[in-house]
Design goal:
Length: about 575
């Protein structure tokens, strides 16, 4: 297929910048391939910066130079080790965790294990590394997809200052900082301006992305979560008449949750486009709907493809057509951990230049002091939990990400994300923990006066996914099940900020209570012990599983709540217990 003349022209204009970009990427690839040399140098820099901080003094880092010495100084741990020092940084005590003079741009917030959001400090180094990873991803993506060059990047961001710490440092979404920190020449490549991140609700964010995006014919969506892309497609079709009217008039709908100043900044970018509106209206009438595939040329889509999120990819062609989809890599608030260099699959090369890594074999993660491997020591085909040490103040940090090694680039492993740890479920980015589940359910049943002895929360795949709470019918009478479903859903909203966000945006439906026969849990637990040749005294009932449609192992007697349904049905359907087979989130 011939490349349009306009695209070739733009590519020629960008040729000098492209050469500079590729030169930087060549340096990155060279360093990554030499992981056995690159990683120790990186760790030495991180340790040197931490040595004279309060955290460094408390943990004896003045005398630590190597990974062997670091392992002796501190065990693998979760966020709780860094949290007291992060709280002090939030109060303005920078030297609690960083060298004097370190600038803190913001705290990236993400759900914590116990319900209190984790705050991850973003320093100059962290921001530079974050940008660098995107730079490498983008250069390779455009090299592999020539026709994506010049397409406007469509991204939905959230504000970086959802909260403000006592010392005045903003805390919120990393995507908001990335918008604010863009250079003017880079900002022109994006559909939405930084002001769009300040929309007060998800419908407004979707509307702004569609409204501004429809001004362009060629768009490249890049977003962390494919559920966001499906939500955007639904919003486009639901408000297609208003969108085309605004596009024709050069206006912005008056009912948007957007304050006056940010609205004025966005309106300044608009202009009447009646011809474009007529073309889209004709496409809408021909198709019977207005989906992104009807409105845009889509040379490439960037989003997560691994773990449970791969389930959403089945729905993408219906709304987004046959556009190629490239995984954006394993990215968290704590940093970027992989960079996919190809469109097929979801695996990416370990980002070995910005974070130091250890890998704990899956079967050893629950040991008291698990032995860890270095990046060049892992085996292809092996499954490991990532243990990063970062420039953002996290040392030997158990982030809970399980990955599989699929290959190598030089000495660097190529990894694909499998799921969060066995005590975490994650349908669309909410990362619910077993602690949150037991807290929400136990508080709910106590408040409602119910006697629920055994239960389990599991992810359920549907048009709108949700979580199902499996309880025995003797513990949750039909006239109380709906009440229990609402209470648990409300509890999870309070305990998990990401769950609340996904519920508010409609990407998750409410919790559904599903009743099973009396004695079903005892039978299941006994069967599980027998299947795994375990011992009764070593078996622990799971109150949360990360297996999609785990409920199919049981006969469901009644269902209450769930996907937009606040009523109970009985019987729901007959299901035969399935053999013990895992399909993990």
């Amino acid at each position: 297929m011939k490349t349009p003349l306009g695209i070739r022209g733009r590519r020629l204009l960008w040729a000098p910048l492209r050469l500079q970009a590729k030169t930087q990427v060549w340096g990155w690839k060279r360093a990554v391939k030499r992981t056995p040399e690159t990683q120790p140098r990186l760790l030495a820099r991180i340790l040197a910066d931490a040595a004279e901080t309060d955290f460094g003094r408390d943990h004896g880092l003045r005398r630590v130079r190597t990974i062997e010495e670091l392992r002796k100084a501190m065990p693998i741990a979760g966020y709780e080790r860094a949290e007291p020092y992060v709280q002090r940084v939030a109060r303005g005590e920078i030297e609690a965790l960083f060298p004097p003079g370190t600038h803190i741009h913001m705290f990236a917030m993400t759900s914590g294990t116990t319900g209190t959001p984790k705050r991850i400090p973003v320093t100059d180094t962290v921001l530079k590394d974050y940008r660098g990873g995107w730079h490498v991803w983008g250069v390779h993506a455009l090299d592999d997809h020539f026709d994506a060059f010049g397409a406007k990047i469509l991204r939905i961001a959230s504000r970086m200052d959802e909260q403000v710490t006592p010392s005045g440092i903003p805390a919120g979404a990393m995507s908001g900082l990335m918008c604010q920190a863009q250079k003017p020449i880079v900002r022109r490549m994006y559909v939405t301006p930084p002001e769009a991140a300040y929309a007060d609700d998800t419908p407004t964010k979707y509307y702004l992305a569609c409204r501004l995006g429809l001004m362009h014919r060629r768009v490249m969506p890049v977003t962390a979560n494919p559920s966001t892309l499906l939500g955007l497609a639904g919003a486009m079709d639901a408000r297609k008449e208003a969108l085309l009217r605004d596009l024709s008039d050069g206006a912005l709908s008056p009912d948007l949750a957007l304050d006056g100043e940010n609205r004025r900044c966005i309106e300044a970018r608009l202009r009447p486009m009646p011809r474009r509106a007529r073309d889209l209206e004709a496409a809408m009438k021909a198709a019977g709907h207005l989906y992104p595939k009807d409105a845009w040329e889509l040379p490439l889509i960037g989003t997560w493809k691994g773990g449970t999120l791969s389930l959403y990819l089945r729905e993408m062609p219906r709304y987004w057509g046959d556009a190629p989809i490239r995984d954006i890599g394993l990215i968290a608030s704590e940093g970027r951990f992989s960079v996919p260099l190809q469109t097929e699959g979801s695996a990416g090369v370990l980002e070995a230049t910005s974070t130091f890594y250890e890998f704990v074999p899956e079967e050893a993660i629950d040991n008291a002091d698990p032995a860890a491997l270095l990046a060049h020591e892992v085996e292809v085909g092996g499954r490991y939990f990532l243990i990063p040490t970062t420039a953002g103040g996290l040392f030997r940090y158990n982030i809970g990400d399980l990955v599989r090694v699929t290959g190598r680039m030089g000495h660097a492993p190529v990894i694909e994300f499998l799921n969060k740890g066995q005590h975490v479920a994650n349908l669309t980015g909410e990362k619910i923990t077993e602690f949150q589940v037991t807290t929400a359910v136990n508080e709910s049943v106590a408040r409602l006066g119910l006697d629920v002895r055994n239960y389990c929360l599991c992810p359920t795949w549907a048009d709108v996914p949700h979580y199902s709470l499996l309880v025995e019918e003797c513990d949750a009478p039909a006239d109380r099940a709906e009440e229990l479903a609402r209470a648990v859903d409300s509890g999870l909203r309070e305990l998990n900020m990401e769950y609340k966000t996904k519920r508010t945006s409609g990407r998750l439906a409410p919790v559904c209570v599903k009743t099973i026969a009396a004695g079903a849990w005892r039978a299941y637990d006994r069967r599980t012990i027998e299947e795994h040749s375990g011992r009764v005294e070593q078996y622990k009932h799971k109150f949360l599983v990360n297996e999609v449609d785990f409920e199919r192992r049981f006969t469901i007697l009644a269902s209450c709540g769930g996907e937009g349904d606040s009523t109970c049905s009985s019987p729901l359907r007959e299901q035969r217990p399935a053999p013990l087979r895992r399909r993990e989130v």
